[in-house]
Amino acid sequence: MRKILFLMFVLVFCTVAGYAQKLKKGSLDFLKNEKELNVVFDYSNVIFKFEDGIDEDKYVERQVIMEGEQWKKDWVNLKDSIKAGCLHSKFIKDFNIVLFDEGFMLRVGVFPSANYQIVIKVNEIVTGKNAGPFSDDPNMSVEVSVTSLNSTNVLANVQMKKTTGKPFSNTLGRIETVYENIGKDLGKFIVKKIK
């Protein structure tokens, strides 16, 4: 029994450790005395996937057969609203709360006069599903680049793979929890690097 519990612990730890943040380039020390950090989201190459990692086109085609053309229209509207920023405030709120609770003055938001900005390139959004014990957690993979404002010179680069959320009943609610967790996780990561 102890061996089984130990193996389960190791499996969970390895799974979680594999999805952690990783500083791929640079340092974040220059953020220590900053108060504002502009944030920009980039969806130029985002890939949407559904439950169990099913590609978007295949899933949409299947849903149209099951639910009708209105489902496809609703999905396109939801996807467009995500790309337009309907969930950015969730990221911003949770990021700022983490830094506030740790005693830092740094805040992220739309700050066009900030010295630095973070560009969050969203690579993949997996919607997950809500199916009781067979639920599939939503997740996102993003790459975060820190640059001087109005510059493409990357000072630091953080990779966040498969940050998960909760399997709520509706698609937007599930994805919303991932934005919140990306904000929390990135906030904690930055705190650890600039303390």
Report on the biggest sheet.
Answer: 7 strands, mixed
How many individual helices? 5
Global geometry = elongated
Structural class: alpha/beta
Strand count: 7
The pLDDT mean sits at: 87
Low-confidence stretches: 2-19
Residues in helix, %: 40-55%
Q: Terminal Cα separation, in Å?
A: 41 Å
Work out the radius of gyration: 18 Å
State which percent range the strand residues make up: 25-35%
Succession of helices and strands: HEEEHHHEEEEH
Question: What's the arrangement of secondary structure elements?
Answer:
Elements: H1 2-18, E1 21-26, E2 36-42, E3 47-49, H2 56-67, H3 69-84, H4 88-101, E4 107-109, E5 116-126, E6 139-148, E7 154-164, H5 171-194
Parallel strand pairs: 2-4, 2-5, 3-5
Antiparallel strand pairs: 1-7, 5-6, 6-7
Helix pairs in contact: 2-3, 4-5
Which features would summarize this protein structure in a list?
disordered N terminus; 7 strands; single chain; alpha/beta; elongated; 26% strand; 195 residues; seven-stranded mixed beta sheet
